[in-house]
Amino acid sequence: KNHQCLQQTARALNSIARPPRDLAARFGGEEFIVLLPDTSADGAMEIARAGAQAIRDLRIPHAGSSVGDEVTASLGVGTTQVKPDAQAIAFLESVDHALYAAKAAGRNCIEVVAAASPR
Of 6, 19, 64, 102, which residue is most buried, by most CB within 10 angstroms? Predict the structure, then answer.
């Protein structure tokens, strides 16, 4: 069932991505990443909200969850202009921290990277 949940989640995220520019992909475990080149912070939040809603709309049962009866999404969002160096890795780590902050805040919410600017 977890495999089916991941497949449905992937389809939902792909439905809100704008090909060929955007990329939605599984990032590991139960985590996904949506890369949105040339997208403003407001645009990224709009897409994050749409992605979270698309996942809620699936109404996938979430047995044993302490949060709710259906699968929801916790999201970390950040925007930056990265150079082809270690800065991209540091940026991804900061967005990952935002994701875990969303999970710690009770799940089913969006946390934004506080300062995501180039060094």
Answer: 102
Pick the catalytic residue from 30, 31, 46, 93. 30
Task: Count CB neighbours of 11 within 10 A.
Answer: 12
**Does the structure show a pLDDT above 50 at 116?**
no
H/E stretch holding 88 reads: helix 86-104
Amino acid at 75: L
Pick from 52, 53, 70, 54: nearest CA to 62 = 70
Paired with 34 in beta bridges are 24
pTM equals: 0.82
Q: Is 30 a catalytic residue?
A: yes
Q: Could you read off the pLDDT of 31-72 as tens digits, one per residue?
A: 999 999 888 889 999 999 999 999 999 999 887 766 678 999
